[in-house]
Design goal:
200 residues; alpha/beta; Rossmann fold; 24% strand
Length: 200
């Protein structure tokens, strides 16, 4: 399948991971742009969850299936393996209970795709070192006083979490997608995408 190069780089990476016709649950789906892309490009059956009524209304205007719920609290209502993929993209760092959300997502989905801005990115480190201020980058674009982010994690943090909790990483990809990023993603990747599954 040909991937549109005009798409956001993180959306292109997720498109490569999600199979055609898959059943997908998107946690913290926002305005539904990723769901719309998956639906149009790969015929994916998407369901979104977002607690912001404005975002839910935007999803509805795109004719997307969405629930106005808090994904921190509602996953227990879904049965085991209800979805082929559960997406937690750019929303894990906003979660009040990230560990609980990951565990529930692994139960509800056969696979879980997690995407997050890498707080270990070299430009963020440089800003913190040279200015002494909380970094602002393309991926972490809000100031400390108005950010929705509650958690700041790095690629190394996430890998350590999966090892500690017996979670299998099926695939990892990074943006920007180049050789230097592959050599040391924790330093040079601005954004990370992981596909994970609970070890049996």
């Amino acid at each position: 399948m040909k991937i549109d190069k005009e798409l956001r780089s993180d959306h292109r990476l997720i498109l490569k991971l999600v199979g055609p016709g898959s059943k997908v649950l998107d946690l913290g789906c926002g305005a539904g742009k990723l769901m719309e892309t998956l639906s149009k490009k790969k015929g994916v059956d998407c369901t979104g969850i977002d607690r912001d009524p404005t975002m839910v209304a935007e999803c509805i205007s795109r004719q997307l299936k969405v629930f106005n719920l808090d994904f921190n609290k509602c996953l227990q209502s879904f049965k085991d393996d209800s979805f082929d993929h559960v997406l937690i993209h750019n929303s894990l760092q906003e979660s009040r209970y990230p560990e609980k959300v990951i565990k529930e997502a692994l139960r509800v989905g056969k696979n879980v795709v997690i995407g997050f801005p890498n707080f270990g990115y070299i430009r963020g480190r440089a800003q913190l070192f040279f200015t002494g201020k909380t970094p602002v980058t393309r991926a972490l674009s809000e100031e400390w006083y108005n950010t929705r982010n509650l958690r700041f994690l790095t690629i190394s943090d996430f890998r350590g979490y999966t090892e500690k909790n017996n979670i299998h990483i099926l695939n990892s990809s990074f943006s920007p997608d180049n050789l230097i990023t592959l050599i040391n993603p924790n330093l040079f990747a601005e954004h990370a995408i992981f596909m994970i599954r609970a070890n049996s």
